[in-house]
Design a protein that fits this description.
415 residues; mainly beta; 2 domains; five-stranded mixed β-sheet; 26 strands; elongated; disordered N terminus
Length: 415
């Protein structure tokens, strides 16, 4: 049944010592007491069945409601804002002598990230990335250079980062700085830490479909380390798609469809192609990029193998906006991996799988970081049919869970 709203033309008057200014561009703030029984402000509260009941005051803070800024309106050009901390409304650009406002409050359904953050303890400080993480070290926070804000990442043998989505199991890698949820594929079913299973790796049925760079296994140009590449160029986010990108997106389009596809964000993925210092002990390396010249290391080698300082920052020219991609070598080190076997952390699956992070140009061979069958953060040439693909997606910030607590036997279930 269509709802009728009766408009009552009553000037806004003095309300508990607060007068709404008229003909002003200044911001006016009204708290709960100032709004209560103000006849120029109509308040509507969402009910269980989705309809709205009119009342005389805004909900209490503990009632878990949120102002619906799309439905709420004032006449004239007055704009409505919501001050969550002070729990009141802010009116901007009041330019009518008689201003009437209609406020709609919806029952707030906690997002997936809100539910998770409510149920975990965030560790302070920074873990020792020079050591592998073999036990459940919990959740840490770090500045998110791509999304902004703070990211929360799981480290070690995590037991509370299982998610069921699109009929498949995933592990939470991190909560991004914008509140979206980064997941890595774990298979049709969920697996305990330390499980050796090919089910959590997506790859083609022939060797040609497993190559990182090209379907015919080319490797003799450093440009091939790109998720996309243009021969002779250090970086591009367009150009030719690597075979890893093609195969990962092929799997995604076949498996994440309909309403589920609408829950996946346009995520940010890093393919860091900056150059840097070589690994300690290597000789004959330069620090400048070339397509086929003298051997050089990419920046991830010094950062992850020399200094053990992973980052969520990325050169602007190497950030892809995609529905699906792969994990980065930095995310592997955040999770508890390094250049040492580790069969205990949650990213181990007893299989070889690629990351999106370039490694080096060496002996006419373009190489990329990958996680090997022992959980080791290693490297391989892009021309090898050596590793599979493990899709990574980002669920939108407003996605919710219908049940679960994130454990193996009771994973979070996406609504």
């Amino acid at each position: 049944m269509k709802r009728k709203i009766i408009y009552i033309s009553i000037p806004i008057l003095l309300v508990i010592g607060l007068t709404l200014k008229v003909n002003t561009k200044e911001k006016t703030y009204l708290n709960k007491e100032a709004i209560e029984n103000n006849k120029s402000i109509a308040v509507y509260i969402e009910q269980e069945e989705g309809t709205y009941n009119k009342t005389t005051s805004i909900p209490n803070k503990e009632d878990n409601y949120v102002l619906n800024t799309n439905k709420s309106v004032c006449n004239g050009n007055t704009n409505i804002g919501w001050n969550k901390e002070e729990w009141g409304i802010e009116l901007n650009n009041i330019d009518r002598e008689e201003t009437r406002c209609y406020l709609y409050f919806d029952k707030h359904v906690p997002t997936a990230s809100e539910i998770i953050l409510k149920n975990i303890t965030i560790n302070t400080g920074t873990p020792d990335f020079s050591q592998i993480a073999t036990t459940d070290e919990g959740v840490y926070q770090v500045s998110d250079g791509m999304y902004g804000g703070t990211s929360y990442y799981w480290r070690g043998a995590a037991i509370n980062n299982y998610v069921k989505f699109a009929g498949k199991c995933w592990r939470i890698v991190r909560i991004n700085g914008d509140g979206s949820l980064r997941l890595i594929y774990d298979g049709a079913t969920c697996h305990a830490n330390g499980t050796n299973t090919a089910e959590s790796v997506v790859m083609g049925s022939t060797n040609a479909e497993k190559y990182y760079a090209t379907s015919d296994g080319q490797y003799n140009n450093s440009s091939y380390v790109g998720w996309t590449y243009t021969l002779g160029s250090q970086r591009t986010t367009s150009g030719t798609a690597s075979n890893a990108k093609t195969q990962t997106e092929k799997w995604y389009n076949a498996n994440i469809t309909g309403a589920n596809a609408n829950k996946v964000a346009d995520g940010k993925f890093c393919n860091d192609r900056n150059t840097g210092q070589p690994y300690s002990g290597w000789s004959g390396y330069v620090t400048t990029w070339s397509a086929t010249g003298t051997q050089f290391a990419y920046a991830g080698v010094d950062r992850l193998w020399n200094k053990y300082q992973p980052t969520l920052s990325c050169p602007s020219g190497d950030v892809y906006t995609l529905k699906v991609g792969a994990i980065t070598a930095d995310e592997v080190e955040f999770a508890g991996g390094k250049n040492e076997n580790n069969p205990s952390y949650y990213l181990y699956n007893g299989q070889n799988y690629w990351t999106m992070s370039p490694y080096r140009w060496y002996s006419s061979n373009a190489q990329v970081f990958f996680v090997d069958a022992g959980g080791y953060l290693g490297n391989a040439g892009v021309g090898y049919s050596y590793a599979g693909l493990r899709p990574v997606i980002n669920l939108k910030e407003d996605v919710t869970f219908s049940s679960g607590n994130g454990t193996l036997d009771n994973p979070y279930v996406v609504q």
